[in-house]
Amino acid sequence: MARTNDTPNIPIVNFSAFVNGVKEEQERVARQIDDAFREVGFVYLKHHGIPKEKVEECFSWSKKFFALPMETKMLAPHPPSGAHHRGYSAPGLEKVTQHQYEKDEIARSREVPDYKESYESGNVNDEAQPNIWLPEDKLPGFRTFMESYFEDCATLIHRILDALSIALSVPPPGLSPTHSRSLFQLRLLHYPSIDAEQLKNEKRSRINAHSDFGTMTLLFQDDVGGLEVEDPEHPGNFSHAGPIEDAVLVNIGDLMMRWSNDRWRSTVHRVGLPPPKTVTIPGPGVNTEGHRNGEKVVPLENENGAVVPDRYSIPFFATADMDTVIEALPGTWGKDKPKKYEPVTAWGYVQMRMAMTYEE
């Protein structure tokens, strides 16, 4: 199990050993994922089973969608509230918050608006949260691909749930049957280019610090960067969690933290200014270290008028079935560790958090 360079506390696990391995290998991978979620709440999974070409194709479709005129994207509008979380959200409609329940608190959080747009889709036959698609002739092939990619992500979620069931000694059939996919959500996210100074001075936010509120999240990132994960032991300290080639970043959400009685962490994260990138200005000749004599390395973010480029990401959110009661699982509590949370249904908790996100 390796560690990342940018964020040393996020382990990297080879998931193919779980998908294709024998019982002993599956148990070893399950322990590695368990350790990662206990330490930091995040893990990078390499060789996760979704082909690289299909991930790249999803990013291509995302860029095509967000490049459409606003009036076209608004043919698949997200409803005004968070009760039906599907369709297109224009910049400023959604405001991510972290456990803010009062109208005054939510209003203050909206003083620094999220600068992003998104598109949400879910299970093909979801009656509770039906999808809101564009007319087919506006982006032919988009719906068909997204439905296929949704199934790929859902399959991966269930495999990870199998690993978590081993880690918690949940007897067969484990946690997988508690997730019917009715609350699964595939999200396309686009963060338009923005002046670096606006992010530095907190005049705008890409996504404010928050935890996810489902059971688990998959995240596919482009190479722009900007995702930051809070150090659970030192609140307020964030480290960059950049993309790793051919890996998906997986994190625990609030419901799984409650379900595991805080064994696993639902860690706060945000999207802000990417780590500094540099431009090289070459000079004549080559020195002994292979660099050109007289060259300069200039951090782009320190230049006046620097612009942070567009960023695209594709999260996939998993939540247990609507009527699933989330309370501490057997083995996660006892005489020395009482149950920390009151029981809550998955749907009730999600609706409460979504109401905050889309509160007017």
TrEMBL record:
<dbReference type="InterPro" id="IPR027443">
    <property type="entry name" value="IPNS-like_sf"/>
</dbReference>
<keyword id="KW-0479">Metal-binding</keyword>
<dbReference type="InterPro" id="IPR005123">
    <property type="entry name" value="Oxoglu/Fe-dep_dioxygenase_dom"/>
</dbReference>
<dbReference type="InterPro" id="IPR026992">
    <property type="entry name" value="DIOX_N"/>
</dbReference>
<dbReference type="InterPro" id="IPR044861">
    <property type="entry name" value="IPNS-like_FE2OG_OXY"/>
</dbReference>
<comment type="similarity">
    <text>Belongs to the iron/ascorbate-dependent oxidoreductase family.</text>
</comment>
<protein>
    <recommendedName>
        <fullName>Fe2OG dioxygenase domain-containing protein</fullName>
    </recommendedName>
</protein>
<keyword id="KW-0408">Iron</keyword>
<keyword id="KW-0560">Oxidoreductase</keyword>
<dbReference type="Pfam" id="PF14226">
    <property type="entry name" value="DIOX_N"/>
</dbReference>
<dbReference type="Pfam" id="PF03171">
    <property type="entry name" value="2OG-FeII_Oxy"/>
</dbReference>
<feature type="domain" description="Fe2OG dioxygenase">
    <location>
        <begin position="182"/>
        <end position="320"/>
    </location>
</feature>
